Write the structure tokens for this entry.
Amino acid sequence: MDRKIDDQNFSEEYYISLGKSLQKLKKFAEATNAFRQAIEIAPQCHWAYIFLGDTLARQGEMLEAIEIYQVASQKQIAKTHPHVSLSQQQKLSSSAPSFLIIGQAKCGTTSLYTYLTQHPQILPAIRKEINFWNRDSTFNRGLNWYLAHFPSIASGKKLITGEATTTYLDSYKTAQRLLQFFPHMKLIILLRNPVERVLSHYYMNCRYRWESSSLEEAIFSELEMLSQQPTIDLHSQVYATNGFYITRSKYVESIKQWMELFPKEQFLILQSEDFFSDPAATVDQVFQFLELEPYQLQKYPHMKKGDYPPISQSMHQFLSDYFRPFNQQLEEYLDRKFNWDC
């Protein structure tokens, strides 16, 4: 039964946690009440507004969800970019993103996006990964729903915004959809030694208990699937329990598809190893690509850094040998060296 939660003795964290639990149970009306209670307790907590907007959207209340997302953005920008006057944010339609980080997962995208949005001219989306262009369920909510995730920027202001959804690179449908609406979008890609990416991805899934197979079982199971179905539609399967560790590490195939639609000058392809060793230089390269003034951060902490145990030499060699021809194809296609085979 729908009811307002009246207990005032709990914190906003309690009500947010309660609301998320109710969401999972599809008790959306009660989840909505919980998130509203969190907002009443902590009106500056932008995450409470985001979760409330999500719940409203799942109930089909799209107009109200959009309004709530825009309030969430105002609250967030007040914290991250206080030099941007809140009066600029009011009664303005949401702004379109100027850039997307489209991949790849486990290559440093969270760190890169965190660093970029510390630039005084780059305002963050209300969440790093919106997953709009690649998922039918969110794409069908409409462009206004997507744009509501970005701050409203007054015309004439030298401010930009963007997002970073790492599964975009894997989806040709994403590229096709994006081209229809934003053909001049600037696209940023981070690429890591595919062997290291596979390991990082696998052990992350293990930490979250999304993966129960051994590394060898997961790898050879995927290879067996690829032998029977060489072309996999990751757009429809990427959220399944299979991690697609191998498939998502054969970068050349996805990059070719994107570059069939968008000109190469709209891409900035970065090597993760360079980013990890000298983040300041890589971030400055991105600022130049985005045509922004240089900006030096005080520090560059590695976000989502995960440690994992060493693998056997034989398994490492197997993966290196497997990826070698795909790495060579990538180097030839992009006319640059990555030196992952050293």
Observations:
- The longest helix spans residues 313-334.
- The CA atoms of residues 66 and 144 lie 8 Å apart.
- The radius of gyration is 21 Å.
- The beta strands are 99-103, 122-124, 160-164, 186-191, 267-271.
